[in-house]
Amino acid sequence: MPHVTRGSLLAAIRRRPLLVLVVFLVPLLLGWIYVFTLSSSYSATGVVSFQPRVDESNGRDLTSLLARRYPEVAQSDQSVGDAAIAAGVSTATLQSGLTASVAAETLNLSITSTLDTPEQALAAVQSVFKSVVAANADDPYLEALSVQPPARATEDPGPPKLLLALGVVVLAAIVAVLAALIADLLIGGEG
Fold it and tell me: Cys-Cys with 176: which of 2, 11, 23, 58 at CB 3.0–4.6 Å?
C-alpha cells in the first residue's frame, strides 16, 4: 500500500481536476437540496391543572385517576378528529405529533402538538385543550383549572440549516479529494 502524503493528495487533485469538480458538485448539490428542503417543525404546549372538587375528600387517589382518564380524553378519536380539522391536517399526522401526559405526583396534564407550521400546532393544542376542559365538566372528582392555555408555538430546536450546508460542503470536498486519490492510486499518477 503506497504511503499517502499531502503532496500526493495535491498532485492527484492537479492531475484530475475534472473528476474532483464533478465528484464535489454532485454530493454538494444533492446535500444542499436535502438541507434546504428540510421542513421545520413547531410545537405548542398547553397545561391543564386539576384540583379536587369542593367537598370531595373521600380519599381517592386523584393523581392516578387523572393519569388514567385525561390522557385518554386528549388522545381520543373525537378529540384528535376535532383537532385535526382545526389544524387542517390528517388525523394520522396529528396523532403522530400529539402527546398528553401527567407529570409524576401532580395534578397537571401537559398537552403538546408538533406539526409543520406554528399555526397548525397551536390550533391543534387549543382544540385538544378545549376537549379536555369540556370532558371535565361532568367529572365528579376533579375540577379543571386553566393554568397555561396554549398561547404560541415554538420552533423545535435542531441544527441551523447554514451549519448543515457547511457540513455538506466539507463532506463533498473530502469525497472529491478521496475520489481523486483513489483514481490516482488505481490508474496511476500519469494523468
Answer: 23
Same domain, 136 and 178: no
Cell of 20: 474532483
Please give the model's pTM, rounded to 2 decimal places: 0.63
Structural domain span for residue 100: 42-155
59 phi-psi bin (left φ>0, alpha ψ -120 to 50, beta other): left
Query: 111 forms bridges with which residues in the sheet?
Result: 46, 100
Burial environment of residue 138 by CB neighbours within 10 A (0 to 12, 13 to 18, 19 or more): exposed
What's the pLDDT tens digit per position in 47-100?
Answer: 888 877 776 555 556 667 766 788 899 999 999 999 999 999 999 999 999 999
| CA–CA–CA angle 155, 158, 161 (5° rounding) | 100
